[in-house]
Specification:
Blueprint: H1 12-23, E1 26-28, E2 46-54, E3 62-69, E4 74-77, H2 86-93, E5 98-101, H3 107-115, E6 122-124, H4 125-131, H5 140-148, H6 168-179, H7 181-195, H8 198-213, H9 232-252, H10 256-259, H11 262-270, H12 275-283, H13 287-302, H14 320-340, H15 344-347, H16 350-357, H17 368-373
Parallel strand pairs: 1-4, 2-5, 5-6
Antiparallel strand pairs: 2-3, 3-4
Length: 378
């Protein structure tokens, strides 16, 4: 049974250094061709990293800020209106520098957009905390308070980070988001090593980077809410429409729903075999959408039925025996997690257990999770 380590008291110097770093954060334009060794963080063997971005009206995230800290200094890289980030890229690719992030998520996509590189080696403090018994979705500010007794203000993540100039409170928030990461790394890393779980974290973080380095995969039809309700022929049409929408969204850099909403895709797919009904569905679309996409949608229909389409396993109904097998697997995972002081979903979520029951072999079975629950795939 693992209990999350108790909070530690930072020295007055450590707290003061962090507060000073936030106050004196350096604004940095990374495309000014200065040598990488003059950035200020070039000699650091571990750095906290974070990104701020906007993604409300685009398919791809629009980078607004990149933050770097060694716990006693903070650098804020301005990506707006710039296209080259040699110093940041050099840091991301340096295998001797540990990159510390909290809940890395879309940050990896932002790094790829800016530099074409990903942070390796990576240390995710949210995952590290979960492996020590903390909630799986623990927020950064909660973890900082829990570990160090330092309270941080939150609530700025949805701000317009691409607007210039950034307000002082946003700059303060952005700097606070990284200045404590190196301290968390030291504390969580030591606790993980003592518990024998540091290799778990290294494995999970490497898997995150490996997946982010691959080209986007998966079937766009799985992103359409309600797709499972359609018959196989209707789902084949939906797959064709969803693939078209995915390409259009990427090409125009728009959210999928800005191209065509899920409800419209479902209706078009359900009526594709009835030309008159399909025409009425197109006619019911908002005028700007109909004007832009009517020809494309009719062209998709003219391609005829999709003969080779197969319903994705994710949209197949489980048999009664399979549903029972998932329940039994969940119980085994719950018992295993409880004995280790972990949330069950950290070991395997219901979705991942369902994949096992269907006969799939996820990549995580080859690591520490496979040692715990690999027998469920037999």
């Amino acid at each position: 049974m693992t209990e999350f380590p108790p909070a530690i008291s930072l020295s007055e110097h450590q707290i003061s250094a962090a507060q000073t770093a936030v106050k004196d954060a350096t604004w940095f334009a990374d495309d000014d061709a200065r040598p990488a060794q003059s950035t200020g963080w070039s000699d650091c063997r571990r750095v906290g990293l974070d990104t701020e971005f906007v993604r409300e009206r685009t398919f791809f995230p629009k980078p607004g800020l990149v933050q770097i800290s060694d716990s006693e200094h903070v650098w804020l890289i301005d990506p707006v209106g710039r296209s080259a980030f040699p110093s940041l890229k050099s840091t991301l690719l340096d295998s001797d520098v540990t990159k510390i992030l909290h809940s890395v998520g879309e940050d990896l996509e932002v790094f790829r957009i800016l530099t074409g590189a990903l942070p390796q080696p990576l240390f995710d403090t949210q995952i590290a905390a979960a492996m020590l018994g903390n909630p799986l979705q623990c927020r950064y500010e909660h973890l900082v308070e829990q570990c160090f007794g330092v309270r941080l203000a939150g609530g700025q993540a949805r701000s317009d980070w691409c607007r210039r100039p950034l307000a002082p409170e946003l700059l303060d928030y952005a700097a606070q988001d990284v200045v404590w990461l190196p301290r968390l790394y030291e504390w969580l890393g030591e606790a993980l090593e003592q518990s024998g779980r540091l290799a778990w974290l290294e494995e999970d973080c490497q898997r995150l980077v490996d997946r982010a380095s691959e080209e986007p995969s998966g079937q766009p039809v799985l992103r359409v809410k309600g797709a499972g309700r359609l018959s196989d022929p209707e789902l084949a049409w939906l797959d064709r429409f969803a693939r078209w929408r995915e390409g259009e969204a990427r090409r125009r850099d728009l959210p999928r729903s800005f191209v065509l909403r899920d409800e419209a895709l479902l209706e078009l797919a359900a009526r594709a075999e009835r030309p008159a009904a399909f025409e009425r569905s197109i006619g019911s679309l908002p005028r700007p959408v109909r004007h832009r996409y009517e020809a494309d949608l009719k062209r998709l229909l003219e391609g005829g039925p999709v003969e080779a389409f197969q319903r994705p396993p994710e949209l197949l109904q489980l048999t009664p025996d399979q549903r029972q097998a998932v329940k039994e697997a969940q119980q085994i995972v719950r018992e295993q997690a409880e004995s280790m002081g972990l949330e069950p979903a950290l070991i395997a979520s219901k979705r991942e257990l369902t994949r096992l029951v269907r006969g799939e072999r996820p990549d995580w079975l080859d690591g520490w999770r496979g040692e715990l629950v690999g027998h469920l795939a037999a």
